[in-house]
Specification:
Layout: H1 5-22, E1 54-56, H2 84-96, E2 106-108, E3 122-125, H3 134-145, E4 150-155, H4 157-171, E5 178-179, H5 202-208, E6 220-225, E7 231-237, H6 241-246, H7 255-274
Parallel strand pairs: 1-2, 1-3, 3-4, 4-7
Antiparallel strand pairs: 5-6, 6-7
Length: about 280
């Protein structure tokens, strides 16, 4: 059955508007780790794609990282492992899957109108001292309940967990955080991951030979789910997937960590796009 002409025209107009909004200008910020995390722009960075990896921008203050400062300029916790980790991960997705992913990430500010709803997958790095306004928390909550997916990564130990909880409880004050069972579909969404172990933090290895900070020796994979059981928030506690991505080609960083971090990261992306 053919659509009436005015409906067909409206559908085309809406598709155009969505397409234009989805291709908002690429933007870069100051990396928290300075030159250690810098990355050259790939030659195809302006090419459109079906998936753009979102990185959640958020205000941070207090203990547990580089609090204070102007988070709108970067250089604070949300830019840990950025941008090299994001771009290495995008390259891995391209190499190991058939997903058409843009070669560069997009930092996503929850205060920017409804832009957050354009990203089925978002990464939150080092969420140890994040603090949201009521409007920001409500926007992220709506994003997740409407089908969005957030990965929380690169934090270790009791103190950093407490900082994570303070911010997450602003978003979801009444939802349970639970361990993911070993047979959860997310662990088989792309790769069948049978063995999980801590994905180590590189700076801790250099400083004291540990793969973790503080008392974060035991890795956990936790989740917050919606009312249908879909994972909305994947929590890599006592793990550092960001390091496993950005240091995948560094001979000083154990290959086994990148092996696991990339495979599980790809599982998260596939899960986000299919659930």
């Amino acid at each position: 059955m053919r659509l009436p002409q005015w409906i067909a025209a409206l559908v085309c107009l809406l598709a155009l508007v969505v397409g234009v909004r989805a291709q908002r200008p690429f933007r870069e910020y100051i990396p928290m780790e300075g030159r250690d995390s810098e990355a050259a722009l790939p030659p195809d960075y302006q090419n459109p794609a079906e998936l753009i990896l979102g990185r959640l921008m958020y205000p941070s203050a207090g203990r547990g990282g580089r609090g204070g400062g102007n988070w709108l300029n970067g250089g604070t916790n949300w830019t840990v492992d950025y941008p090299r980790g994001d771009r290495t991960f995008a390259a891995a997705i391209r190499r190991l899957t058939r997903i058409d992913v843009r070669s560069v990430e997009q930092p996503v500010n929850p205060d920017d109108d409804n832009d957050i709803f354009l990203f089925p997958y978002m990464h939150a790095g080092m969420p140890t001292n994040w603090a949201f306004s009521d409007a920001q928390a409500a926007k992220i909550r709506e994003y997740l309940l409407r089908g969005g997916f957030l990965v929380c990564d690169s934090f270790f130990g009791t103190q950093e967990w407490e900082g994570f909880l303070r911010g997450m409880q602003q978003i979801f004050p009444d939802r349970e955080i639970a361990e993911m069972p070993d047979n959860d579909p997310i662990f088989k969404a792309g790769f069948a991951v049978e063995e999980k172990y801590q994905v180590g933090n590189f700076r801790s290895m250099l400083r004291n030979g540990n793969t973790y900070r503080a008392d974060g020796s035991e890795p956990h994979w936790r989740a917050i789910r919606d009312d249908r059981g879909r994972i909305m928030v994947a929590i890599n506690f006592n793990n550092d997937f960001g390091d496993s991505w950005q240091l995948a080609d560094d001979p000083r960083y154990p290959e086994k960590f990148s092996y696991l971090g990339i495979r599980l990261g790809i599982n998260y992306v596939i899960y986000a796009m299919t659930h």
